């Protein structure tokens, strides 16, 4: 999954981790630097989230998302196609 869009549909812990990793790297940050920025997330936890470990703590995953400038939006799956179409028409990007 590329992090080239301003939005992504993530349906698994693996995809979430890949998005976090891509965003961290795009910001030019190492895992160690992110862990240092956020005292609630150890390097090991960050590594587990980025690898998509399904048992990673959701609270820490949300903190990490915020640390790399992501907001997490929960959306009724019945609305997802309409929302994606609206986003695509407003910014010209497409969704993979």
Low-pLDDT stretches are: none
What is the CATH class? Mainly Alpha
Q: CATH H level: which superfamily? A: lambda repressor-like DNA-binding domains
Q: Please tell me the overall pLDDT.
A: 84
The gist of it:
This protein is mainly α and 96 residues long. It has helices spanning 13-26, 31-37, 43-50, 58-67, 80-91.
Q: What structural keywords apply?
A:
96 residues, 434 Repressor (Amino-terminal Domain), mainly alpha, single chain, 0% strand, 53% helix
Account of the protein in words:
With 96 residues, the chain is an all-alpha fold. It has a single domain, classed as Orthogonal Bundle (434 Repressor (Amino-terminal Domain)). Helices cover 53% and strands 0% of the residues. It contains five helices and no strands. The radius of gyration is 14 Å and the shape is globular. 17% of the residues are buried. The model has no long low-confidence stretch (mean pLDDT 84).
Topology (SSEs and partners):
Blueprint: H1 13-26, H2 31-37, H3 43-50, H4 58-67, H5 80-91
